[in-house]
Model the fold of this input.
Amino acid sequence: MGEGAVDVGVEAADRLATARGALRRVEDRALGVRPAAEPGADGRLLPVVPPLAELLPAGGLRRGSTVAVAAGTGATSLLTAVLARASAAGAWAAVVGRPELGLVAAAEAGVALERLALVPYPGADLVAVAAALLDGLDLVAVAVPDQGVPAADRRRLAARARQRGAVLLPLGPWPGADVELNCAHVQWQGVGGRAEGGAGRLCARRVHVQLRGRGVAPGGRGTGMSLPDSAGRPVADGAAAASTTPVEGREAG
Done:
């Protein structure tokens, strides 16, 4: 075996060791106890912020499911919004392959950083790292690489999530996901200056979050959100979030 092959093997082992080390630290802090669900829930749901609860078929993140977050503008903010309420309620989460994740912004969105494990550079071992984390955590977000994830590996991770009662959160294209969330009609507030009713600097971002997938009408559905609002939080966007509205021109996944 050549020196190059040895180096690759060492790098792979280091990445897996990083993931397993993160998992051990989380398990040590959690003492092996999974969080309780919100009052009134059936124990199979993890809570989400109210605008997303209105969209998701079960009103929360069902354990064992795969919930994809489509890539694009606002995707990282949407991901932190998905993680926020569950982690605040005691769930343990991991984000794999997203080195640019802003921890200050995540904390402002409500993510409990003390229950968040990060594996920013999984390399070619993304699937193995994610599988290891699904064994012990409640939510595992995986940034889909440019080349995508092979169908066999997608099925393997989805099956692992079902077996362990975790929620798999792919960030990017993921055929076969139970549901998919994405941001549309993104509009920043505050950029127009005082003459146009703004403050001359970015202060909040309004988006229309769309949902499609199983348990959702073929046209999908959506709701308005501030993602984030001026305090960095994901919240319902006033009257736009008072009721869900149909999403035209999209077929269910």
